[in-house]
Amino acid sequence: VNILVINPNSDARMTRAIGRTAERFAAGAYRTECLAAPGAPRFIETYEDEMRTAPGMLKLVREGERRFNAFVVACHCDPNLDLLKEATAKPVVGIGEASMKLASMLGHAFSVISATAGSIPNKLALVRAYGLESACASVRAAADGDYLRAARLALRRDGAEVIVLGCAGMTGWDGKLRKALGVPVLDPVVCGLIVASGLAACGAGISKVRRYGAGG
Amino acid sequence: VNILVINPNSDARMTRAIGRTAERFAAGAYRTECLAAPGAPRFIETYEDEMRTAPGMLKLVREGERRFNAFVVACHCDPNLDLLKEATAKPVVGIGEASMKLASMLGHAFSVISATAGSIPNKLALVRAYGLESACASVRAAADGDYLRAARLALRRDGAEVIVLGCAGMTGWDGKLRKALGVPVLDPVVCGLIVASGLAACGAGISKVRRYGAGG
Amino acid sequence: VNILVINPNSDARMTRAIGRTAERFAAGAYRTECLAAPGAPRFIETYEDEMRTAPGMLKLVREGERRFNAFVVACHCDPNLDLLKEATAKPVVGIGEASMKLASMLGHAFSVISATAGSIPNKLALVRAYGLESACASVRAAADGDYLRAARLALRRDGAEVIVLGCAGMTGWDGKLRKALGVPVLDPVVCGLIVASGLAACGAGISKVRRYGAGG
Amino acid sequence: VNILVINPNSDARMTRAIGRTAERFAAGAYRTECLAAPGAPRFIETYEDEMRTAPGMLKLVREGERRFNAFVVACHCDPNLDLLKEATAKPVVGIGEASMKLASMLGHAFSVISATAGSIPNKLALVRAYGLESACASVRAAADGDYLRAARLALRRDGAEVIVLGCAGMTGWDGKLRKALGVPVLDPVVCGLIVASGLAACGAGISKVRRYGAGG
Amino acid sequence: VNILVINPNSDARMTRAIGRTAERFAAGAYRTECLAAPGAPRFIETYEDEMRTAPGMLKLVREGERRFNAFVVACHCDPNLDLLKEATAKPVVGIGEASMKLASMLGHAFSVISATAGSIPNKLALVRAYGLESACASVRAAADGDYLRAARLALRRDGAEVIVLGCAGMTGWDGKLRKALGVPVLDPVVCGLIVASGLAACGAGISKVRRYGAGG
Amino acid sequence: VNILVINPNSDARMTRAIGRTAERFAAGAYRTECLAAPGAPRFIETYEDEMRTAPGMLKLVREGERRFNAFVVACHCDPNLDLLKEATAKPVVGIGEASMKLASMLGHAFSVISATAGSIPNKLALVRAYGLESACASVRAAADGDYLRAARLALRRDGAEVIVLGCAGMTGWDGKLRKALGVPVLDPVVCGLIVASGLAACGAGISKVRRYGAGG
């Protein structure tokens, strides 16, 4: 099994960090490659950023169709996920969807720690689209990058029992936070890999009837 | 990673079939063991059956706490799942919850093929408890064990794009049905393993604050 | 009409208190008997407690089938309710379900006062399972047993208009709180009796087709 | 306890039938009186009918405030229920709300048999307002007054396990249908009495804070 | 196009204010007339007020059927809306429904500023009836008529992005608040006109099959 | 008021038809201009089509910012709506959202007639995103372009009371269908204009705090 992890932004440091997490987690059981979408903007913060990175993401999937068994979209707002699901019959997994659905299996409710306050409404729209309204205690922004404090507030005030790191850029912080908080903390990149590698291994992929029927 | 797959019923043939699927899917990447719950009834069809198998399931988790890194409940009605999640801080994964949440990532809507008509209301209650109402096209019983016919009706009439095998006893039928139907077909035992092994590998488990806080 | 009120725990003082409430409320219009489930744990606080009390509860229903016209489960977390509904065609009423559904007819929204913070997530799951999300203003724990204070906060901050006592152990407190708060306060044991005696009197009971079809 | 059952229409035969059901069910345990709303239209089929009957219904509640301990609105579309709840601190129970909420405790899903096809959308709006979407299998009109046939279709095609008679005019048909169908069949007038008499007996009534705070 | 704006209360100053807003907004593109419902109470604050104004509102629609092309109900609690929709095949638009549905197209979530705390539960019931639960951030009462402060709290604490003036009596305040807040502020009277005039212009009106089939 | 109607596809015949509808409906009360997105694909049927048309649509909004007071996206699947809402503080209205929200004010439930079966899942996802699940009776594809037959089935079998034409290409068919069916039939292009012109006239536009805060 060979998995392509797509970083929708062009931040090289983030691509490397995501790649390291992927390799370490795969641990030789399967291969992973992390590539930034060609022509991607520096960050994915706006709907326009999502649009600008779409053609590059699609190109990676199209060209990787033969070589890879599954694709992971390594941005927690799951940009262009429908587009890529349409483009291939291989599994395409958004780390937002994967991390929140896995989190819902580990406790009564999870909270998402978001990098910026501006992304909260969009994340809430995803929560609703994925049917996770009652499983999601809150989406909280980490002011000044203080993830720990945001997570503590989620546990104390919002009734969260599980924490989801709401940005690919937070990859690698799960262990430290888990120790400090004493609750499960999910690294979304890892969650994407769990689902993508598992589905690829069992031969399942995106359904090509109706909704995503155009390609693949 | 070492995973205990718990068959809540005492059907030896089913325990073996589930065990074979698990071993074949793990393929050496991690170890799996499949055990029937001691004192389990022959089948799990009623709420009383679920009650009768509870003490044995709990015993397996308690005694396996040290030896195993995760637990899979290999019955699609997820019997006693809250009980086991409470009993340990390791991942405990119901194959019903895992298969339906994974299915929701592969298409617009999935249908569950159930072994008997009698289990349909209970499965619909699970669908609702898991927040999957809009992702679930239907739960259909396979009259006379004709899974293929039930799945075809789900695709044609209910708008399903993905099929979930709704009974551990159907394990191994996914490949054959996928070929016949041309859509993804999920083996729930495999889905349970994907989630359990993945969570165990990344060090996440059941949250011990609030809802499942009593044990583990 | 003769109603068996089942106390799922073994606290004799609580069994007596529940029994007194039942007798006083029935006031001779029908007979009530309150029995603790044989082999029950001291309190019902965990899913394991629920499991341990299940066989005794089932025994009471099975053996009482002839003698009683209806059964009330006198614990606000409605433990093993599906199991007992399956076991008989007589009415089986959980005091959690009955009290919250009656409360929803008396005002825009109700709040449940819970004995412990630990039971809040489980109660929220019941609220959702019963379709009462928009009718439930909040579930609040009474720190240090101060029900009055918890209820006042529910009225002031959560928009509650009706209070539900969320524990059989609070039985008898409704009058005092009603006076202090000036809003309806429901004793869940009484609510269970209202529904159970009424259904028994009109000859209705648990449906034996599909979901609870196995017994009775 | 003395309960006023309000027939919102002026059909004398229906008032008598409802009154008979009420007396027979109360069986001396409490007193009931059934009165038609003064100035009521012949039938309640339209929103205008609901408007025309409102002043008379309000008059009955206002003038009966001292004499009666609870009020039942004996029309399954629960006309002017908010208005009456506002007018008194005694219990006011709509037979639509009471019958459907009681039905939801007896099986996985209920169906309402409606007298006319025209009332289906309005009943569906009530189902949603009461949070009963997942508990309601269907609302079916009885073509040519053939309740039995409509109920059979509900059981066979819609997955209903419990039948609710969706019109006060059907009062008294529950026993016959129960025998023919083998499932619980609820007479809504009886359901209204169960809830109203029970709430009156325990001293609970409509909350006078916020939503219904204007009167009573 | 000629539109009748119905003020359900008898406050002459409010009728004039609503009429001025309507004329100014129509700006000659269509004609508007604002009439108080004959026999209306001074204010619409209770369900009884809604009942008292119903016959006058119905009379205005019946008598205006020929002369007017559409009707606007100029009270944000949409009193008797079903009644009027039933009475005519012309468009009948409640300013509550129109303003909240338009607001949902301008941002992630809106808040309603209510004139009194007492009307909050009723407005929340409307929000739910209209399917706007996830689009509505909050309903907030303006203590002492300080709309600006209430709106600021909605933006800061509730996550609102759009403000809806929740009372016809607030008509004309939108411009001032928009300037002070920097977000869209909707005048509900204007919203009602937008929808009513638009629907009238394209020849659409209330459907006369099923739910509102009795009249018109 | 000057409104830009954007056709996201490059079909010149459709651009002209949409433009004609817009001009005729505006009838001189405001100006409209209909432009195809530069570089748009021939049709918008896939997520890739939506991606390909995004840059051109954005360009039209950016360049039209000064000249136009509002923007209408004239494709019923509301492609790239979030993107355009983010790009300007003027109103941006999708004809899918506008037509379905207006339809929900004219009857109990509406059905959408879709041009192709393939677009049904995507439309259902929109229905859910807009909170219209209970207002939408069904989405039906018109086999062989027979809109009338599809609409008749929606009325007879699905309980629809209002019909929404689910494709900009169906513009102009509303009058003919209304006559044949006897129920309201909404032309989505007209609906988009009603909302866009109305919002522009009252000075409201897309909120620039949080969700769509990046531009405009």
Mean pLDDT of chain A: 97
Based on secondary structure, the structural category of chain A is alpha/beta
Determine the strand fraction of chain A and express it as a percent band: 15-25%
> What helical percentage do the residues of chain A reach?
40-55%
Low-confidence stretches of chain A: none
Q: Which chains share the greatest interface?
A: A-B, 53 and 53 residues
Outline of chain A: globular
Q: What's the arrangement of strands in the largest beta sheet of chain A?
A: 2-1-3-4
- Alpha-carbon Rg of chain A, integer: 16 Å
Distance between the termini of chain A: 18 Å
Number of strands of chain A: 8
Main sheet of chain A, how many strands, which sense, barrel?
4 strands, parallel
Quaternary state, please?
Answer: homohexamer
Give the helix tally of chain A: 8
Q: H/E order of the elements of chain A?
A: EHEHEHEHEHEHEHEH
